Fold each of these.
Amino acid sequence: MANPLPPFAFFFLLCLLLATPSSTSSPTFPIPINSDRQSHLQFYIHDKISSPNATAIKVAADPNGSRASATGLHFGSIYVIDDPITEGPDPNSKPLGRARGFYSVSSTDGSDLYFTVNVIFMYGIYNGSSVAIVGRDPIIEKVRELPVVGGTGIFRLARGFAFMKTHAFDTATGDAVLFLEAYILHH
Ligand SMILES: *[C@@H]1O[C@H](CO)[C@@H](O)[C@H](O)[C@H]1NC(C)=O
Ligand SMILES: *[C@@H]1O[C@H](CO)[C@@H](O)[C@H](O)[C@H]1NC(C)=O
Ligand SMILES: *[C@@H]1O[C@H](CO)[C@@H](O)[C@H](O)[C@H]1NC(C)=O
């Protein structure tokens, strides 16, 4: 996929050089609006539905059973997730943090999710900083675009967008590995 925005040629490492450690102390006010930084983040989300140690659990479903679905997911189902995120597609690669939130099956044909997570970083100077990603996830499309709507710590005032792809999907268990690439402006 071609990079649609050449000005975002900043990578995580560069962000690490520019960013100031997160602090819960009060920021100076007014917040200078011209100090936007850019970060390009890439990581993998491991969405494990199967036991043992599932990190995505179904907490709600249509009480009247399942209607026809092209995807195996049924309208009305809600899954709460606490998925590990890692640097590479291997679940044993460097842990970066967790994706915590939920997704619900929001189209009657089971093809479209409402996906809302806080991506919480847990290493180095990023430890404790987070970004909020909220949007639609039409899972049968190869690339889905989701808005980045906010953040904390290093990612205060975050706004941007993320591309999400299904890197691997186990049809027997429903377990998925997602690749997520985010382009973020932040304070
Ligand atoms: C599940 O979690 C337990 C407790 O953390 C651990 O001992 C076990 O190895 C895990 N099992 C799998 C299959 O990951
Ligand atoms: C479930 O289906 C029955 C029969 O079609 C209907 O009467 C009932 O209202 C439905 N309940 C829900 C919660 O949709
Ligand atoms: C992240 O911060 C927590 C709480 O402040 C601390 O317990 C943990 O060791 C830190 N982890 C890393 C990898 O720095």
Amino acid sequence: MFKKLLAEASAKNATLVAVSKRKPVEAIMELYEQGHRDFGENYVQELVDKYEELPKDINWHFIGTLQRNKVKYIAPFVHLIHGVDSLKLMAEIDKRGQQNGRIIDVLLQVDVTDEDTKHGFTPAKLVALMEANEIHRLAWARPSGIMGMASHTDDEAQLGNEFQELKDLFETVKKDYYDRRPDWNHLSMGMSGDYQLALKHGSSMLRVGSLIFGARD
Ligand SMILES: *Cc1c(COP(=O)(O)O)cnc(C)c1O
């Protein structure tokens, strides 16, 4: 399954992030030995433990809900933080990036669903955020795109609409703020159940776990 997924992602120039949360380091090493370098984790402590144990050229993506008081643990090494949902969290990432002397790329989480369990900026709030100055003053936390999740549904028409809304928003920001955000390159959307649809609607980064590693306990 991994090879097929990788081929489908590569055909669309999308990065495949293998979501290894709650999977052992052996499972990660199996893909690493095939040349894979992008892995995603949801929990700070688990990510730090795996970082310490595994080869240092892995690109670690943090894809979970990040508490501000935990940013400091991943700031020294994290490759990309998906799912940043407030300016306060951005400011903390900026502070820790500066302390570590490294620019940290982040994706802003956008919620286009009606589900209470999901969070993130509404499209209007994201545009307002890009329009204001605060976010552009942060030199060490670099917004480089959008992370989105579609609704938990089998309704392909609805999923397609949501992915398209994310894609349109991504392109609008790219066009309108290119001078301030030349690194706006990533549209992270699509998981095991909906990655093909996400690719069809322009995803540049898939986050796939169970389809690669099997179901989690
Ligand atoms: C767990 C998780 C994934 C991967 O989910 P699968 O359905 O196992 O592919 C992707 N994105 C986020 C934010 C996750 O928490």
